[in-house]
Amino acid sequence: QSALTQPRSVSGSPGQSVTISCTGTSSDVGGYNYVSWYQQHPGKAPKLMIYDVDKRPSGVPDRFSGSKSGNTASLTISGLQAEDEADYYCCSYAGSYIWVFGGGTKLTVL
Amino acid sequence: QLQLQESGPGLVKPSETLSLTCTVSGGSISSSSYYWAWIRQPPGKGLEWIGSIYYSGSTYYNPSLKSRVTISVDTSKNQFSLKLSSVTAADTAVYYCARCQYTTSWRAFDIWGQGTMVTVSS
């Protein structure tokens, strides 16, 4: 299976909102409601931010939200803060216990 | 609180086999709702799922790596392991182990190890 497609970079000013897209196919993103998003700061392990398209694990601020339409999932971060600057990766279940990640998006807080 | 810790050689020669172990602490690897996964990240690049294992020993591999990957589990030691054969420089990466929640209402990698850098070089 091929990697999911994400923009290489996005940016926004503190307080603004940004949206990161994640495009797959009907065999992964479009076929299952099991899209997750991970935040990764430099030199650190990824951290789960969103699971099952739009659910937040305990402790994740409600500024982070997820959605999906067809073969494209999206992560929206509202009220941008400096600490949100990081790399973000989407991941989708692709059936038969197989998973596929996106190429990652670098978020810059201006 | 569940924690995962990767261990193994940081340097592997080309054509040899990369071997890593993930030790699970603070919880049992034999829980029915979880799979256990290996994920890697080449320097400056994105994440790649390598494969997963259930405590019973059932394994699932990335088709692109399947011919070279073996994942095993030792429930008595609360560990699972990765072997990647015939490595090349392209296998140089940070290797993470992670817990995969796997139910009808939660499927994602919710807990990660800190990662271990493996370099393939002679």
Explain what you see.
- The complex is a heterodimer of chains A (110) and B (122).
- Chain A is mostly beta strands and 110 residues long.
- In chain A, 0% of the residues lie in helices and 44% in strands.
- Chain A contains no helices and 9 strands.
- Chain B has 122 residues and is an all-beta fold.
- In chain B, the strands form 2 sheets. In chain B, strands 2, 4, 5, 6, 9, 10 and 11 form a 7-stranded mixed beta sheet that branches. In chain B, strands 1-3-8-7 form a 4-stranded antiparallel beta sheet, with no helix packed on it.
- In chain B, a hairpin with a 2-residue loop joins strand 9 and strand 10.
- The termini of chain B are far apart.
- The model of chain B has no long low-confidence stretch (mean pLDDT 97).
Summarize this structure briefly.
The complex is a heterodimer of chains A (110) and B (122). Chain A has strands at 9-12, 18-23, 35-40, 47-50, 64-69, 72-77, 86-93, 99-101, 105-109.
Oligomer: heterodimer
Taking all residues together, what is the mean pLDDT of chain A? 97
Count of alpha and pi helical runs of chain B? 0
The helix tally of chain A amounts to 0
Q: List how many beta strands of chain B DSSP finds.
A: 11
Distance between the termini of chain B: 39 Å
Percentage of β-strand residues of chain B: over 45%
Helix-strand pattern of chain A, N to C?
EEEEEEEEE
What is the approximate shape of chain B?
globular
The secondary-structure class of chain B comes to: mainly beta
Q: Please give the radius of gyration of chain B in angstroms.
A: 14 Å
Shape of chain A: globular
